[in-house]
Every structure is written in C-alpha cells, then in structure tokens.
Write a structure and sequence with these properties.
heterodimer; A: mainly beta; B: mainly beta; Porin
Chain lengths: 599, 262
C-alpha cells in the first residue's frame, strides 16, 4: 500500500514537473527577441557566473531560478532539507526530467564552497563609429572572488568614445555567515524588496513570454552590484541581521550620479551610460533606511523605510530633492493560490500593486492590478508597468495552458489608462496590449507562433491636424527549431506592422533569419544571417560574449550576420570571439574578444 | 398546476415593471466572463442563450461603470416542469431620466445531447418627458454537450423587431467550453452584432475545494478584462466581479443565487 502510494506520488510529481516546466532559454534568445526584452539574459548571465548552490541556498535564493514553478522550488527545498544533494541524478529521481536538469546545469551547483575562488574576465569590443576622434573601443574588466567568508568584486567599463578606462566602475566587499549577522556589504550594492515599488533592479521587465511568471516579483535581497548598468547603484554600507524568521537590513548610501543640469538644477539623468564628455558624477544622492522582513518558505512580509536626498534641486519642481518612502509588501501561497502585493507612500503619494496567481498543472492564471499617481518618484523602483510607473492604472491578466504534454499556450492582456496628461498628449489616454504564443515541440523540433498586438492612443500631427489617434502595432512571428546531435538550427519569419486606423496609414516590415548553433565538447559556434526589409523597427536578441547583452535594431533593407566562437580550454580558461557586420545604409562592423580565467 | 400559476404570476409581475435591451451582463458571473455562460451555467445564463439554464433563483445588482446614478438590477429564475425548463427574468436599468427594462419568459427542451430553447422578451424604454415605448422580442438558442466539450449558439431578436422606429440589435452568439482539468473550465466565444465587427471572448473558471472559484475573462474588440470570485455554501452561491472599460471606471457586480435541488 505504502509502495503504491509512493509510486502514485512519484508519477504525480513527475507529471506536474513535465507540465509546469519552462526552460530558461525561453526567456531570452529563443522567444523574446524582437520585443526588445533582454533583461532576462542579464539575469541568466549573472546566475551563470554565480550559480545557486542547492545545498546552501535559502528558499528565497532558490526562487531566483525564476522559470521554475513554486512546486519545483518546493521539491528542491525539500531535497536540501533531507540531506546533502550530491548529484544531478538526485534531481531526476525527485521528478525533474533529464531535459530539465540539462537546462538547469549552468545555473546551479551543489559543490561545497571552496575556501577561495577567483574569476578574471576581460573583454574588448570594437565598433565602427563615424567621424569620431575618440577610441571606439568598449573595454570591460572584472575581478570577482571568494575567500573564506568574504566575497569581493571590482569591475570597470569604458564605452565607445569615452576617454577614461574608469569611466564606470563598481566594487564591493561582502562578509557573510549563517549567524545573526548574515551579511555586511561595503561598496556598491543593490536592494530589491517586494514588487519593486521602492527598490528593484532597473533592468526588470514587466511582461514577457512567461505570462504568469514574469509580472509576479518575489524580491527580498541585498546584493553586490555587478551589473554594467551605470546608474542607480547604491554605494555605501548595508547589513543583514537574522533572528529566527526575521531579517533586518539597515543601509546607507552616498553616491555620485551623472545628470544633465540646467541653471545648476537637474533636468535629467544620464541613463544610457555613454558619457562622451567623460565627466565624473555631478550630482550627489544620499539614502539611508532599513527593511524588516518576515520570511518563511512560502510567505514573505516586509516593511521598508528610506530617506532620499539629492544635493541639487530639480528643474521640474514637482520632484523634490528630499523625500521619504515607506512601503509594505507580502506574498503568500495557500495551496494552489498565491497572493502578492505592495503598497508604498513616496513623498506622500500612494502607489500600489497587488495580484493573485492560481491554477494547477494544466492551467495557470495571474491577475494583477496597479495604480501609480502622477509624478510618482521611482528613481530606484521598478515594479510592473506598461511604461514608466507614473500616472497609470491598469489590469493585467496572464494565462498559461498546457492542453497536451508537448504543447503550451501563453497569453496575456494588459489594459491601462493614463488618467492625467502625459508627455505631449494633452489629454488622458488609454492603451492595451495582447500577446498569444502557441508552442509545440518534439525531440527533434519545436515550433512557436507568436502574435502580439498593441494599441496606444498617441498625440500625432498628420496633415497639420494634431489630435489623439489610435496607434496599433502588430507582430506575427514564426520560429522553427530543428535539433541534431551536435547542432541546433533555428529559422525565424517575422512580420510587423504599424497602423493608424483613422488615417488608414500603414507601415510594415519583414525579417527572416537562419541561425546555426554547433556544440562539440568544449567548442561552441553560433552563426546567423538575417535579412530584413522594413519601414518600421525590428528588434532581435543576439547570442553574445558572456556577460553582454546585444539587441540589434533593424530598419530599411539590409543583411546582418554574426559569428560567435567560444572555447573552454581546461575548465579554468575560456576564450570567446565574436564578429558581426551589417550591409545597409547604416553599416555597422563589430569585433569583440573576451577571456575568462577561473582559479 | 399550482407551479404553473406561480410562474405565470411572476411573469405578469415582471412585465409590469420597467425594462431594457442593451445586452448588458445579467449577473456578476457574466460580468466576470464578459458574457460567456458555459464556464458555469446559472439561472441568468438563459438571458444570453435560451437553451442554457440552471434551475434556481438568482438576483444581482451593479452600478454600471461605478456610477451611482446607473443602478442595474437583475432577477432570474429557472424551474423544471416535466421535460421542459422554464425561465423568468427581469433586468432594470434605473436612471433618474432614463429607464430600460427587459422581462422575459423562456422555455427549453432537451433531447439527448441537444437542448433547444426559445424566449420572448418584453422590452420597455422610457425617457423622462420624451417617450415611453414597449415591444416583444424573441430569441432562440441551441446547446450541444458531449463529454468535456459543450457548444452553444444563440440568435437574439430573431424576428428582427424594431423599437421606436429604430431596428433593435440582432446578436449572434457562439460559445464553446472545454473542461481542461478537474478544477477548471475554459470557454471561447464570438459575439456578432449586426453591422458591427466580431467580438472575441475567452473565459476561465478555476475551483478550489468545491467551495471557492476564481473567474477571469478577456474580450477583444472592445478590449475588456473581467474577473470575479464565487463562494458556494451548500445550494447558495455569492459572486462578486469586476469588469474593465477602456475609458470608464470598473463595473462592480454582486450576485446571489440559490440553486434548486435536482
């Protein structure tokens, strides 16, 4: 009887995992390309470079494997609690399929942490720049290590045309332990809490292929800053204290930012990171505050308070130079229902996000509401939004259906309003976005059909008449993968259009590419050729050197190619090389080289 | 025979109250599903399709678009009478200067997997200091059920009646429902109003522990989202729902239902 129930349980778990599983790759190159969404490639790169140790990770750290379902996270957590995980076979025995484990491998480890390790990464990229007197080189170097209970990192980056090698740099020293004092971090760091109304990574994305996973954030972390996004890192000192299930995180930051000034008042911040004038930071920002959180495996409750002060006034007097923020958040799971939400008061303006996710192995749904007042201050925030997290109310609904084992349908719709005047639009406007993806796969091939439609009211001038008009954008994409022993071939056909119904103005474009990925032992080669003919913009994610994100934008007529080679010499030294070129009116030749040394 | 008189009496009572025909959602559930009815059949389902009904009594109230001056009341009931199911319904939109009302009497009959139904609606419209008018309109529908799939089709205003010299809307409604798992249903549907584009709809319902259900839906053209929660205690059901509008505020809806024992 006991054996029978175990067999039934095993099959139930296996069944569930087969249904619930999404691969990490679906978040990046394979599906997200032309939508301009490369955030997840950055997360996965970070995960690759600091894999999750399944024997040491807390439940919250396991949740960083964001493509896994809550049930799968629970399985990993239960395995860890039962004893040391020593091999991938244990995961398979617990219900993960071989394919699942293969895809997890780059992002997990169960090795006992070594007393020390050191990784050196050095990259140089050259881009064709017209009429430039400065160096066109992009140079990036990073040293990252671990010694006893200390972690450290130093990185610097020089963008093309910038003069100084240390134009952007980041550094931190971290002490960690399992005691009451869990962490001390000195240097540049980032904070992420709740749904991101007060603190979150600025690279966060609201919507994507995984329609029921991406909008639901489970943030609660303090981490050293390793991103090359050059603004909004905190710089100073932060601690994490732990008592039973309670965590206390006080933090202090005093950092310099690069801003455009008008009469010594801040008119905007330099978010691109490209600083041709090569100035050092000209605005100082001071932040101090604390977070208290109660964290259990499937329940989080937290409160964050922070005070912010810039040393200069803003050009727009609706943004104060000194303000405070208070937010409280939660997420919890009761059987098949998960609830989450955050409410914040920032400079006495209230903002909120709340949602619910429910379903089983065949169908998963998510409903999310958000409301942000006009001129909400969100310099360090990044919660779910259709645009800029200001002057917005909206409802999002995501649906994932698995009607058969090898078929998956993802759908979402987001409907929003901007109740106040926004940018040039001179009256309140509305918008909506729908996404539908049908995916079916077998051992040898996979097909995905994606349809995305967006309708936004925009203020446009046509024939000397300036009015609010409906502006529709539609994208149809068909992807086809063929798998061979050593090779994967992917073909894409994409058709996109923009349409102004009232004026019957229609623009369209097509993009087709063929991509070949070849892996033999330690050698990996990726080659791609793309042909485009378009009146509008197409976005495409490219395979790139590790740690970089490359989203190409295409318009007009032309051909684009690239070739990427990676070779791992002996598990300690890896070299990577990429060359790309484009033939159209905007020729763009790029060549890059990178080595990674792991000691 | 007593039951027949009771039904007839209720019908006369409803006809004498004020009434309408805007094809608005007739219950909190329909508000949550954007008008789809097969995800969960209720007494009010018959308003969308005369072939689809559950026996019981249901009453609902809403302030359309959260406007307190636009209260919208609904009452629906369904009774089994030998091989027939008879339905009585009333909807009232009660603005200070504008009143619209529908009172309807329907009947359906099941043969194996197929159910056919027809209903007559008495429409009443009144604009303060302008006009008041009434008319009878007829609807017809068919429902096919087999295993985990059911499909329904309805035509509203089959006699193409006009109303105060204006043609009344003719609606074609198609819907299919699939029981995707033990706990969940998904429906897709099309609604076509004559001289208007098709409207596509999709709705799902998911039930937890037999007592609590979450409902969500999407409508394309115009874009709308609906969501709701249902609590079931024995034969009683309470449903609360919301539905978005492109420009106006959310419509909140609440329904109470008592289902007759089979």
């Amino acid at each position: 009887m006991l054996l029978k129930s175990r067999i039934v349980l095993f099959f139930l778990i296996s069944f569930q995992i087969v249904f619930c599983y999404s691969s990490p790759e679906e978040f990046i190159s394979d599906d997200e390309n032309s939508l301009g969404e490369d955030y997840y490639s950055q997360i996965l790169e970070n995960l690759k470079q600091s894999p999750i140790n399944l024997n040491k990770a807390s439940y919250q750290e396991l949740e960083e494997l964001f493509w896994l379902s809550s049930e799968q996270i629970s399985i990993l957590w239960n395995l860890q609690n039962k004893g040391e995980i020593k091999s991938y076979k244990q995961l398979i025995k617990a219900g993960f399929s071989k394919k699942n484990v293969e895809e997890l491998k780059p992002y997990i480890t169960f090795e006992i942490i070594k007393n020390y390790d050191l990784t050196l990464q050095s990259r140089i990229y050259s881009k064709e720049v017209d009429q430039s007197k400065n160096s066109p080189l992009n140079i990036y170097q990073r040293v990252k290590g671990n010694f006893n209970k200390f972690k450290f990192c130093f990185l610097h980056q020089k963008d093309p045309e910038e003069k100084r090698l240390l134009n952007f740099y980041s550094y931190y020293l971290e002490y960690y332990s399992d005691d009451y004092l869990q962490k001390i971090l000195i240097g540049k760091y980032r904070l992420e809490f709740g749904q991101g109304l007060l603190f979150a990574s600025k690279l966060g994305l609201s919507k994507g292929t995984a329609s029921t996973s991406i909008p639901f954030k489970k943030y609660n972390s303090l981490k050293g800053y390793t991103s090359s996004y050059e603004i909004w890192a905190l710089e100073g000192v932060a601690f994490v204290f732990k008592y039973k299930h309670f965590f206390f995180t006080p933090f202090y930051s005093d950092t310099k930012l690069k801003a455009n000034l008008n009469n010594n008042k801040i008119s905007s911040f330099n978010k691109s990171g490209i600083d041709i004038s090569d100035s050092s930071g000209n605005v100082s920002e001071q932040i101090y505050g604390a977070n208290i959180a109660f964290l259990r495996t499937e329940t989080k409750l937290g409160i964050t308070f922070a005070k912010f002060a810039f040393d200069k006034q803003f050009d727009d007097n609706k943004y104060p130079s000194k303000y405070s923020g208070l937010s409280s958040y939660f997420n919890t799971r009761i059987n098949e229902i998960e609830f989450f939400g955050e409410i914040a008061s920032i400079d006495e303006k209230f903002a909120g996000v709340s949602g619910i996710r429910w379903g089983d192995q065949r169908i998963k749904q998510l409903l999310l509401f958000r409301k942000y007042p006009d001129h909400l201050i969100n310099w360090h925030a990044n919660s779910f939004t259709s645009a800029s997290m200001k002057n917005e109310t909206g409802i999002y609904y995501g649906l994932k259906i698995i009607p058969r084992i090898r078929t998956k349908i993802n759908f979402y719709i987001d409907i929003w309003k901007y109740p106040k005047v926004r940018y040039f639009e001179k009256m309140p406007t509305t918008g909506n976005e729908e996404f539908l993806q049908f995916e079916t796969f077998s051992k040898f091939r996979k097909i995905a059909i994606t349809l995305k439609h967006k309708n936004k009211e925009k203020y446009k001038t046509i024939d000397d008449e300036s009015i609010i008009r409906d502006f529709e954008q539609t994208l149809l994409r068909i992807d086809w993968w063929s798998y061979y022993d050593l090779m994967k071939i992917k073909t894409r056909f994409e058709f996109a259009n923009e349409y102004l119904p009232e004026n019957k103005l229609f623009k369209n474009g097509i993009l087709i590419y063929e991509q070949v990925k070849f892996i033999y032992k330690s050698l990996e080669i990726v080659g791609q050729i793309t042909v485009f003919h378009s009146q509008i913009l197409h976005y495409m994610y490219e395979y790139a050197l590790d740690g970089t994100m490359e989203t190409s934008v295409f318009s007009g007529d032309g051909v684009h190619t690239y070739l990427l080679l990676k070779y791992d010499w002996n598990k300690t030294f890896e070299t990577q090389f990429k060359i790309s070129d484009r033939w159209n009116e905007n020729n763009c030749f790029k060549i890059g080289f990178q080595f990674i040394l792991k000691l | 025979m007593n039951r027949f008189f009771l039904i007839f009496f209720i019908y006369l009572f409803i006809v004498n109250s004020h009434s309408i025909d805007l094809n608005l959602p007739a219950s909190a559930l329909q508000n949550a599903t954007n008008g789809l009815i097969l995800t969960k059949i209720m007494p009010s389902s018959v308003i969308q399709n005369p072939a689809v009904i559950k026996t019981g009594i249901e009453t609902s109230i809403s302030y359309l678009y959260n406007l307190s001056e636009l209260p919208y009341y609904n009452f629906s009931s369904g009774f089994r009478f030998k091989k027939f199911t008879i339905s009585l319904n009333s909807n009232l939109l009660n603005h200070q200067f504008y009143k619209e009302n529908i009172a309807s009497l329907g009947v359906n009959y099941q043969v194996k997997n197929i159910t056919m139904g027809i209903s007559s609606r008495f429409l009443y419209n009144s604009v303060e200091n302008y006009h008041s008018f009434s008319k009878f309109v007829f609807d017809a529908g068919v429902l096919y059920e087999r295993g985990e799939v059911s499909t329904a089709f309805a035509m509203k205003n089959i006699t193409q009646t006009d109303f105060f010299d204006t043609p009344l809307p003719i609606f074609f409604l198609w819907e299919s429902n699939y029981k995707i798992s033990q706990a969940s249903n998904i429906s897709i549907g099309l609604e076509k109003q004559q001289d208007f584009y098709f409207s596509f709809k999709m709705a799902t319902i998911y039930t937890f522990f037999d007592v609590f259900s979450l409902i969500s839906s999407y409508q394309y053209n115009p874009e709308r989202l609906g969501a709701g929660a249902l609590i079931k205690i024995k034969n009683y059901e309470i449903i609360y729902s919301i539905r978005s509008h492109k420009y106006l505020s959310l419509t909140h809806y609440i329904s109470f239902c008592y289902a007759f024992k089979k």
